[in-house]
Amino acid sequence: MPSDHLALSLNQVRGAFSPEQTYHIPELTIKHGAQIALLGKSGSGKSTLLNLLSGMIGASDGSIKIHDQELVGRSEAARDKIRREHIGMIFQTYQLLPEFTVAENIQIGNYFSGQDQSKLSERITEILAKVDLAGYGDRYPNALSVGQQQRVAIARALIKQPAVLLADEPTGALDQETGSRICTLLQTLAKESGSTLIFVTHDQSLAQRFPSQLQVSDLLQWNNPEKKTA
Amino acid sequence: MNSLPKMSWRLMWSRRWVTLATLLALALPTALSVILLVVRHQTEGALKKDAGDFDLVVGAKGGAMQLTLSSLYHLGMPSGNIPYADYQALKNDERVKAALPIALGDNYEGYRIVGTDPLILDLQKHDESPLLTLKEGRNFTPGTFEAVIGAQVAERANLSIGSTFHGSHGLLQLPGSEQHTNFTYEVVGLLKPTGGSHDRAIYTALDSVWKVHHIQESIHQVFQNPTPLNKEVTSVLVQLKSAGMRLWMADELKKRPNLMVAVPINEILSLSRIYLAPFQKLLFLITIGVIIVSSLVILLAMWQALERRQASFLTLRSLGASRSEILRLLFYEVALLVIIGITAGALLGHLTVQALSGLIYQRTGLILNAWALAPGELLTLLTITLVLLLAGLTPVITLYRQRAL
Question: Are residues B104 and B212 both part of a single domain?
Answer without folding.
Answer: yes
